[in-house]
Design brief:
single chain, about 600 residues, alpha/beta, Arginase, Chain A, about 40% helix, globular
């Protein structure tokens, strides 16, 4: 098959950038001649070139990428090894999605809608749900995948799967709905710098120009346009992508989050949730990074304070640390930031969030991090953090509103998180927080479509007044003991402490204890619960010693392969008989 060459400017542009010696025009003139370069440039400007057809291996590539979680399977496999689903099986029911969009576009709920509920709860119609389907316009249109834009983890199908599931389960009709709005400029400037807003708008304009070019020409680099679109020439933009709708969708996500928080503070709804994208907790005051452009949780926190909230708690249970949210409020005593995340000794993205990061200036002690230093985090690990760190410190802080950066990439089967949190686990996290103060949930990460949609539904059911889902039998007994401990705290009154935090990994126990030791300098609750966790560690050590004692006793009679060898004693050598040359004998 004959392959068509790319335009000469693409080759020369790459060559000039690679060798870094001559400008593009000079290189064209020297290699091909001024006349040939002019002819090719005029032909390219006047004659439209058809879009290139898909390469022959495109279908083969499609068959190796999972639609549900974006994981790449081995060649010939029809089932995803990460999530266990057929690779090309669609997840989003388009009819349910269309019905959900139509319902959200209606101005008010009808009487028939109000009668339709999925299950009776105590908080029916007490949850404000914000969703605007225009957020799906933001997609990475240059990433290969089964379909255009699906190759990037942060894709429109994430919110589509959530809304279709909420419609199918009946949860959608139990919530007050809000269409969503763009964030006002002053709302964004309350959190971000003017330079970041200008950089996002400029990169989006360049993406519009690139999209117009791609309608008639090949994909490929084009002078400074691609660099600007990828943020290579801006210190305010890092690992994010742009398309013509990026700036609008980023403003829409931040504005919807702010409006839900304002409604909850004003009392028009007990709790709230916003199904929004792009996410926001990595966005710093002057940098867009980690799929995030504007920090939705930070904008919502400032909007809540403008509506009358005095103390705001931001709880981030995304598997990645919210470096942007932490940095924005690092010296603010009116906003407490708490996070449970994978840290892996600073080797997990973004590399921030150590337990020793507690704030600065007047905000010291108002940043609480529980970092996990290994993957495979389970329900028991997170429940221990919530029971002995998050809930006690949040109760002592006494927030007026809780804003949850609800990332579901710690769910089992997520391609990026590497953790094993169940849907029931997320429902218990939501129950713990919503019992303390009015709660607003904002969608952050979560890249397994089915797991993210299921966890979102479970959390919304809890906000509507239903009990959390059932955990495993032994773990359920631990999680149900959510009543505050008496003062002074007695380890004997906590069965989970007396069991040595059974089911919690050693690494998680170490992280929880470290967080309490650091925070005990600032919070009375941390000092009390530190004593409990240290008592649990003593029980764990005692049980391990009892388990290892028979093994140690049995191994005393055995020589360890690592023990030093005894010195060799030289053995006496037997004496060798001396050889005497015989005397020559005289002949006859």
């Amino acid at each position: 098959m004959q392959l068509r060459k790319l335009p000469i400017t693409t080759h020369t542009f790459l060559g000039a950038r690679r060798i870094g010696r001559m400008p593009t025009k000079s290189l064209i003139s020297r290699c091909w001649g001024q006349k040939e370069a002019t002819r090719r440039r005029q032909q390219r400007e006047t004659v439209p070139v058809a879009r290139a057809a898909a390469p022959p291996g495109a279908q083969e590539y499609q068959s190796r990428e999972c639609i549900n979680c974006n994981s790449t399977a081995f060649r010939g496999s029809k089932t995803c090894e990460n999530c266990g689903r057929p690779l090309l099986e669609e997840v989003v029911d388009q009819e349910l999605l269309a019905s959900a969009i139509e319902y959200m576009d209606q101005p008010e709920a009808s009487a028939a809608d109000k009668k339709t509920v999925s299950k009776k709860g105590d908080n029916t119609a007490g949850v404000l749900l914000a969703y605007d389907d225009r957020c799906r316009r933001h997609r990475d249109e240059r990433t290969l995948g089964p379909f255009l834009g699906r190759g990037h983890p942060e894709r429109p199908e994430r919110v589509a799967a959530i809304m279709a599931r909420l419609k199918e389960s009946g949860v959608l009709k139990r919530c007050k709905r809000y269409k969503g709005r763009e964030a006002k400029r002053e709302e964004l400037l309350a959190v971000h710098d003017e330079a970041l807003l200008a950089a996002v708008e400029q990169a989006t304009k360049v993406a519009v120009l690139a999209a117009e070019r791609d309608k008639t020409t090949w994909y490929g680099p084009l002078d400074a346009q691609l660099e600007a679109m990828e943020g290579k020439n801006s210190k305010h933009i890092q690992d994010v992508y742009f398309n013509p709708s990026t700036a609008f969708c980023a403003r829409l996500a931040a504005g919807s989050a702010a409006e839900v928080a304002r409604h909850v503070v004003s009392g028009s709804a007990r709790h709230g949730a916003a199904i929004i994208r792009p996410p926001g907790h990595h966005a710093e005051s002057s940098v867009a990074m980690g799929f995030c452009y504007y920090n939705n949780a930070a904008v919502a926190a400032r909007a809540a304070q403008a509506a009358g909230a005095q103390r705001v708690l931001i709880m981030d249970w995304d598997v990645h640390h919210g470096n942007g949210t932490q940095r924005i409020f690092y010296d603010d005593a009116t906003v407490m930031y708490m996070s449970t995340h994978r840290y892996d000794h600073s080797c997990f993205y973004p590399g921030t969030g150590d337990a020793t990061e507690t704030g600065s200036g007047p905000g010291v002690g108002f940043t609480v991090n529980v970092p996990w230093n290994s993957g495979g985090v389970r329900d028991a690990d997170m429940l221990a953090a919530f029971r002995y760190v998050i809930r006690p410190l949040a109760a002592e802080f006494r927030p007026d509103i809780i804003i949850v950066s609800a990332g579901f990439d710690a769910a089992e089967g997520d391609p990026l998180g590497g953790c094993r949190i169940s849907t029931a686990g997320f429902s218990h996290f939501a129950a713990t927080l919503s019992a303390l103060a009015p709660t607003v949930m904002l969608l952050e990460g979560g890249y397994n479509l089915i797991a993210t949609a299921a966890a979102t539904e479970a959390c919304l059911r809890v906000l509507l007044g239903e009990p959390p889902l059932q955990l495993q039998d032994r773990l359920q007994a631990r999680a149900s003991a959510t009543t505050p401990q008496p003062q002074p705290m007695d380890p004997a009154s906590d069965p989970w402490i007396m069991s040595g935090l059974e089911g919690v990994s050693d690494s998680a126990v170490e992280s929880v204890c470290l967080a309490l030791r650091v925070q005990s300098e600032f919070w009375e609750a941390a000092r009390n619960y530190k004593a409990l966790v240290e008592a649990a560690i003593a029980v764990r050590c005692q049980r391990k010693e009892q388990f290892l004692r028979p093994i140690i006793e049995a191994s005393k009679d055995m020589q360890s392969p690592l023990a030093p060898m005894p010195p060799k004693v030289p053995q006496p050598q037997p004496e060798q008989p001396s050889f005497t040359r015989p005397e020559p004998q005289a002949g006859p």
